């Protein structure tokens, strides 16, 4: 029986199927399928177009259709407003309005080509705005330079690190000769200096070579055992000063005082002891500069980053007592703390080892080491015996001293404050529960104290290092590179500054560097060694290295002698004990420029010796770069260099030129124009292609064998490579590019090292000299024009380029041989600064200021060339001492209309307050009392007084040409230059500003009241300018009186401009200082646990200010005047033009006389208080004494005093005048302590006390070391608004007030409760964000490569070995390795002598 599907009754799916012979049909279908041709008509039905990726059509037609569709969509009516906005902005030159154009972009279709391009460009632009990946990271490991150069490139942290192998720049393509020339023959025929040598005619001095030597030893330090390794980093990080390992850095740091300093005159690199002394003096200067920078950073304390939390302030014992004692706010506790601090300082100054004893011990040990009668074991025994003996003697002597006894007494008293009975309640409870809990809290506090001071030390040190390295690289760019490129011979400050902010995508920067073997060879500037230094080197080799005939020393003997010297160096002293030079005896002679010994008291080298050596080097011309000019005593050194170059398989000279895209030498004639060198090269190498890079690169020269550097590097491969490498060294360093900013260096540090293009054509080296040797050089010494040139060459360039008036020199004669002009530069020669005559006695100061004999003159008037010609004529040309004041006639004196002037000032000040005040809320206003009040007020009244008020923009004259800030800047420029200047590095800049500003003010004054007063009365009536205020009227009257004595309006204008300046002399300073004194006193009352008994003076000032009677005005003036006398610390300076004897003291011609008015007045007030008598005006001396007192027809001091009192009165009328919030409300004043010696600039204060104490303990005459005579008085200086420079006058200080009226500072029952500052828990202040302790970021976080400290050079690390702390268990398992604390680990060092983990 057949199945249903076989007869067609059903289908496979159960449905009825087709009738007929289905099988035949299916067979036929199978045949058709087998014979199916895919190229037939069915192929077009295959596939599914809907599932494919959408592809935009291409081609001209498709693009045209796409563009037409874009235009149709954009040109819809709803888009017309947006189109109009875009067109208007574009046609107006303001670019595309992206906001208005957004709807137009949105109208484009998803398939629009223009939409796609806009998206692509937008993503690309925004992506390229960022660095990928970032180059700057947070944490000490990245913010500061590491000792070994690690982390310069965070992503390749070992790139350029100390201990890395040299890189190789140039591929070796040329096949060398099979038998290369003998290195000795190469030296003899191509390199050896002939008798007499060849001096360069470039004018460059040995100072350039000394700087090059520092650079060379900074980036190249080939490892003694593996010549492929460089022990130092590949960055310009001053490793000769700081060292290239943490251990080397530790040895040069002055860690005892925790102030970020280096030990006095100490540097790390002992290889430089074999160099001429000038090289070591360079490092001494950088050492002093570092210490100066660290000191200034601590004084400024930008944003609080260089201070410890309040609870850690003071000594550790004092901090402990403050924390735990219940009596911490009592007067007795405060007195005990002061007593303890005095005793502690005296103890520290006397504590052994005394520096003098250390020096003597070092000399004893040196004698032992050099004693040839002792063997090694005997030397060791005698060393140990001597050290122990001296140590015991010093300790015994100290324990019997008064300082020791007093300190122990005070220490016991302080410990008594933290005994159990005197503890705060919460700590007594801890002791009751568990004594160990309290002891642990104390240990934790002490650990936190140490960590906080360690962090301060590290932050100061590392930031000062960044600043010092910044000065180093600035000198390298703006002095060294400019000198090599020859730009100083032109009147331009142009230089190739590698740090330019070029598009980082096309020219990378800050990505790291690795030094190469080729540049190791190129930086051998032995041919430029001066003849003086050649003689020194020969003598050094003879006397210090036992080489009797250096010029004829065979290589093997040289190597033996060097090995012997290296063996002796194994017992070398600490870096702070190292001396340099030739003969080392105990006698120190300032005229000896070869023997540099440390002073046994200070540890410093002698300034006079170093100055003599530097001055000699500055006038010592370098030798010619080029062939046959290397000192013959360096023959073994050059032979080893040639041999090493061959070992490194360095490419040939032509390979090197190929790499730098320079034409190959096709003949020996193209290498050099000198026939003898051509023949020597031909004899030695046979073909130019075979000339080795070293010494071949130094053979490229002219016919006279010269290849001195210059503006062009077209022909010389040496200079092309040197300039390229200089650019690379700086640009590849992250700290000189990406992180070259105020965040890294601070605002002050950045300004300190930034070049000034208007001073010395951007040279900055003079700053290093002035910081290292304060007061030695005249600030306008011609040697500063470019210290890498000789003084004669500098004088010639200054004469030719129009700078002669800026420097001290005079034309002399002509050189008989060269016909070059010669100059007398004696006035530019550095001299030891004489200590000034320091006066702080009211009677003596008054006697100086009242002198009418011409014996004393303001220093500015002693150098009249800084003034315009008209002022020079008015004040007398030449010696200002001949300018005697005329006798004043009291009948002729001008008496201003006091009431009218006061009314004028009051109206002016109220207008300024309304104009400048900022509304903080409905009742509170903020005003910058200095910048937006005192400065505009002073500017206005000076301008009106001199008669050009109509030229200053204001309410009456909105279209005037000058702003108030512009006028005040000119006034300030004059005052700053004429005031006591504590920073000599700024004097050239300030003189330039003064000359411009005094001329500007003179011109305005000439056409102001002087012009009006010069007219006939008829002309004044019809054509004169209206005098619309009492101040202009007063100035006009003064101008008339001046013209009575000086008929020439030009000279009369010169006199009046000085009278005008004197009316504003110190006005802003006086107002700010007085107001700050008053308000500070209120805050002291509010926030002190023991407020003063007397009420704050400000309350009395406000009471008087709200009254209008004459008596109140008189009392107010007296209070302000007294506050002014004792709040301004700005000395007056005079120069003695002849010998003069006063009652009890005498002055010698040339002496600088410093009049410390502040100290004199403070002592006078204190004397009056102790004697119980009232103070009166005759007891004090006014700070406004000035050179204009000679013009007796009008006393401008009174106007200055009236203006200060009026400004104080206006502020006092404000309701609840108080400080602004946070840093804006703190007057940024920096106290500069008095100093007795110049070296106090770069020594810790406690070290200075040790020096003073040591001097007291000796019986020798130590006046040449230290005297207690004041060198610089204590002064107050202020920071600019950007905190980037010290200036004598304040710039900004914000206060707040609640309108005008009677003040009420009371709150919560306290008289000054509203001024009480909120107190935050002291432990919270020692945690982020208030204080950031050192954490894992100090080591680089997860970027760090950690190694155990036991990983010492040449030894294995055993920290991972199993440590058996207990017996093994029954299971026989090994105990776990001993864990190390974080402090027991440090970053791995790859210095070629250890294996990093």
Give an overview of the whole structure:
There is one protein chain. The protein is mostly helical and 1397 residues long. Among the domains are: 4-44, no CATH class; 60-128, no CATH class; 160-235 and 486-530 and 622-740, Myeloperoxidase, subunit C (Orthogonal Bundle); 775-833, no CATH class; 891-1063, no CATH class; 1345-1397, no CATH class. The chain contains 47 helices and 21 strands. The strands form 8 sheets. Strands 7-14-11-8 form a 4-stranded mixed β-sheet, covered by helices on one side. Helix 7 (183-191) runs antiparallel to helix 26 (675-685) and helix 14 runs antiparallel to helix 15 (376-399). It is globular, with a radius of gyration of 40 Å. Residues 1365-1384 are annotated as: Disordered. InterPro entries: Haem_peroxidase_animal (IPR019791), Haem_peroxidase_sf (IPR010255), Haem_peroxidase_sf_animal (IPR037120), Oxylipin_biosynth_metab (IPR050783), Ppo-like_N (IPR034812). Heme b binds at residue 526. This is Psi-producing oxygenase A. Keywords: Dioxygenase, Heme, Iron, Metal-binding, Oxidoreductase.
């Amino acid at each position: 029986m057949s199945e249903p599907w076989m007869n067609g009754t059903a289908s496979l799916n159960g449905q009825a199927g087709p009738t007929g012979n289905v099988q035949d049909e299916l067979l036929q279908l199978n045949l058709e399928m087998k014979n199916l041709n895919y190229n037939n008509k069915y192929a077009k039905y295959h596939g599914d177009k809907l599932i494919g990726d959408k592809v935009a059509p291409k081609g001209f037609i498709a693009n045209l259709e796409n563009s037409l569709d874009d235009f149709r969509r954009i040109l819809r009516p709803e888009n017309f407003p947006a189109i109009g906005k875009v067109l208007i902005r574009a046609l107006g030159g303001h670019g595309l309005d992206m906001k208005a154009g957004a709807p137009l972009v949105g109208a484009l279709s998803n398939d629009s080509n223009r939409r796609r391009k806009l998206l692509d460009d937008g993503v690309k632009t925004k992506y390229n705005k960022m660095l990928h990946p970032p180059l700057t990271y947070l944490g000490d490991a990245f913010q500061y330079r590491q000792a070994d150069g690690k982390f310069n490139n965070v992503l390749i942290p070992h790139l350029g690190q100390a201990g890395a192998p040299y890189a190789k720049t140039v591929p070796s393509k040329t096949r060398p000769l099979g038998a290369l020339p003998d290195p000795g023959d190469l030296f003899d025929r191509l390199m050896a200096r002939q008798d007499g040598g060849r001096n360069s005619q470039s004018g460059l001095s040995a100072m350039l070579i000394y700087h090059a030597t520092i650079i060379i030893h900074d980036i190249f330090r080939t490892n003694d055992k593996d010549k492929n390794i460089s022990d130092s980093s590949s960055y310009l990080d001053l490793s000769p000063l700081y060292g290239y390992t943490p251990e080397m850095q530790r040895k040069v740091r002055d860690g005892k005082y925790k102030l970020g300093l280096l030990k006095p005159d100490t540097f790390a690199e002992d290889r430089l002891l074999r160099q001429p002394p000038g090289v070591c003096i360079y490092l001494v200067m950088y050492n002093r500069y570092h210490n100066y920078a660290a000191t200034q950073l601590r004084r400024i304390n930008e944003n609080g980053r260089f201070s410890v939390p309040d609870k850690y302030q003071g000594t550790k014992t004092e901090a402990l007592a403050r924390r735990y004692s219940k009596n911490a706010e009592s007067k007795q506790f405060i007195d005990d703390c002061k007593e303890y601090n005095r005793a502690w300082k005296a103890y520290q100054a006397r504590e052994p080892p005394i520096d003098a004893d250390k020096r003597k011990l070092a000399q004893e040990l040196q004698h032992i080491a050099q004693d040839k009668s002792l063997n090694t074991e005997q030397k060791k025994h005698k060393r140990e015996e001597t050290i122990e003996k001296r140590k015991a003697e010093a300790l015994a002597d100290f324990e019997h001293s008064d300082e020791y006894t007093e300190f122990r007494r005070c220490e016991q008293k302080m410990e008594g404050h933290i005994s159990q009975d005197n503890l705060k309640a919460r700590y007594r409870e801890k002791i009751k529960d568990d004594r160990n809990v309290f002891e642990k809290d104390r240990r934790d506090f002490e650990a936190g104290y140490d960590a906080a001071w360690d962090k301060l030390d590290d932050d100061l040190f590392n930031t000062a290092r960044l600043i010092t390295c910044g000065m180093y690289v600035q000198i390298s760019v703006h002095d060294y590179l400019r000198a090599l490129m020859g730009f100083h011979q032109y009147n331009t400050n142009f230089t190739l500054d590698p740090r330019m902010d070029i598009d980082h995508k096309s020219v990378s920067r800050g990505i790291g560097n690795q030094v190469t073997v080729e540049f190791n060879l190129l930086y051998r500037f032995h041919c430029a060694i001066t003849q003086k230094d050649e003689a020194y080197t020969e003598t050094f080799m003879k006397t210090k290295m036992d080489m009797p005939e250096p010029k004829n020393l065979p290589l093997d003997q040289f190597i033996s002698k060097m090995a012997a010297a290296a063996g002796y160096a194994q017992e070398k002293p600490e870096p702070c004990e190292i001396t340099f030079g030739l003969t080392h005896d105990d006698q120190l002679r300032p005229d000896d420029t070869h023997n540099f010994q440390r002073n046994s008291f200070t540890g410093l080298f002698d300034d006079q010796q170093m100055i003599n050596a530097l001055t000699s080097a500055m006038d010592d011309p370098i030798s010619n770069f080029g062939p046959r000019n290397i000192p013959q005593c360096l023959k073994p050194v050059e032979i080893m260099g040639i041999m090493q170059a061959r070992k490194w398989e360095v490419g040939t000279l032509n390979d090197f030129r190929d790499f730098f895209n320079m034409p190959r030498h096709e003949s020996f004639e193209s290498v050099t124009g000198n026939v003898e060198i051509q023949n020597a090269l031909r004899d030695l190498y046979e073909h130019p292609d075979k000339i080795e890079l070293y010494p071949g690169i130094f053979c490229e020269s002219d016919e006279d064998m010269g290849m001195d550097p210059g503006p062009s590097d077209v022909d010389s491969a040496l200079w092309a490579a040197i300039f390229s490498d200089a650019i690379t060294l700086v640009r590849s360093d992250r700290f000189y590019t990406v992180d070259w900013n105020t965040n890294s260096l601070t605002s002050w540090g950045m300004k300190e090292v930034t070049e000034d293009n208007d001073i010395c054509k951007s040279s900055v080296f003079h700053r290093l000299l002035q910081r290292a040797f304060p007061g030695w050089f005249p600030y306008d010494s011609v040697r500063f024009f470019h210290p890498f040139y000789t003084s004669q060459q500098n004088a010639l360039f200054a004469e030719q380029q129009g700078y002669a008036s800026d420097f001290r020199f005079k034309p002399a004669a002509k050189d008989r041989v060269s016909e070059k002009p010669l100059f007398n530069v004696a006035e530019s020669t550095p001299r030891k600064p004489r200590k000034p005559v320091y006066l702080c006695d009211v009677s003596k100061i008054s006697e100086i200021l009242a002198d009418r004999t011409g014996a004393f003159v303001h220093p500015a008037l002693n150098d009249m060339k800084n003034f315009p010609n008209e002022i020079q004529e008015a004040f007398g040309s030449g010696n200002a001492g001949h300018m005697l004041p005329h006798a004043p006639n009291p009948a002729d004196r001008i008496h201003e209309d006091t009431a009218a002037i006061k009314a004028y000032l009051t109206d002016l000040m109220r207008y300024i307050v309304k104009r400048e005040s900022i509304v903080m809320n409905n009742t509170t206003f903020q005003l910058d009392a200095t910048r937006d009040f005192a400065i505009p007020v002073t500017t206005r009244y000076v301008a009106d007084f001199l008669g050009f008020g109509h030229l200053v923009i204001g309410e009456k004259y909105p279209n005037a040409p000058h702003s108030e800030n512009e006028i005040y800047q000119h006034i300030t420029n004059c005052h700053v230059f004429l005031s006591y200047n504590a920073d000599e590095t700024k004097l050239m800049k300030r003189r330039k500003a003064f000359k411009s500003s005094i001329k500007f003010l003179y011109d305005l004054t000439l056409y102001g009241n002087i012009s009006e007063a010069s007219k006939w009365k008829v002309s004044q009536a019809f054509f004169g300018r209206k005098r619309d205020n009492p101040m202009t009227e007063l100035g006009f009257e003064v101008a008339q009186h001046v013209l009575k004595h000086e008929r020439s309006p030009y000279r009369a204008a010169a006199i009046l401009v000085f009278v005008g300046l004197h009316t504003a002399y110190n006005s802003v300073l006086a107002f700010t200082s007085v107001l700050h004194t008053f308000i500070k006193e209120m805050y002291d009352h509010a926030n002190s646990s023991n407020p003063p008994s007397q009420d704050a003076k400000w309350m009395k000032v406000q009471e008087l200010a709200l009254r209008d009677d004459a008596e109140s005005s008189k009392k107010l003036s007296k209070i302000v005047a007294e506050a002014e006398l004792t709040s301004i610390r700005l000395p007056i300076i005079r120069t003695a033009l002849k010998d003069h004897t006063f009652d009890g003291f005498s002055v010698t011609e040339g002496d600088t006389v410093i009049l410390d008015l502040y100290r004199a007045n403070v002592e006078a007030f204190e004397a009056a208080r102790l004697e119980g008598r009232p103070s009166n005006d005759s007891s004090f001396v006014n700070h406004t004494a000035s050179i204009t007192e000679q013009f007796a027809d009008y006393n401008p001091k009174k106007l200055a005093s009236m203006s200060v009192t009026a400004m104080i009165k206006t502020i006092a009328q404000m309701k609840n005048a108080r400080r602004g919030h946070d840093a804006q409300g703190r007057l940024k004043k920096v106290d500069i302590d008095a100093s007795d010696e110049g070296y106090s600039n770069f020594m810790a204060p406690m070290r200075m006390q040790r020096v003073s104490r040591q001097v007291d303990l000796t019986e020798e005459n130590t006046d040449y070391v230290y005297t207690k005579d004041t060198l610089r008085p204590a002064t107050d200086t202020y920071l600019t608004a950007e905190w980037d420079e010290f200036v004598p006058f304040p710039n900004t200080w914000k206060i707040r007030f609640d309108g005008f009226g009677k003040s009420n500072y009371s709150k919560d029952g306290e008289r000054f409760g509203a001024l009480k500052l909120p107190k935050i828990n002291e432990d919270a202040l020692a945690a982020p964000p208030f204080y950031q302790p050192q954490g894992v970021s100090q080591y680089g976080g997860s970027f760090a490569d950690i190694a155990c400290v036991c990983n010492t050079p040449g030894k294995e690390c055993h920290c991972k070995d199993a440590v058996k702390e207990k017996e093994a268990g029954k299971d026989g398992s090994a105990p776990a390795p001993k864990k190390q604390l974080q402090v027991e680990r440090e970053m791995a060092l790859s210095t070629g002598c250890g294996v990093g983990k």
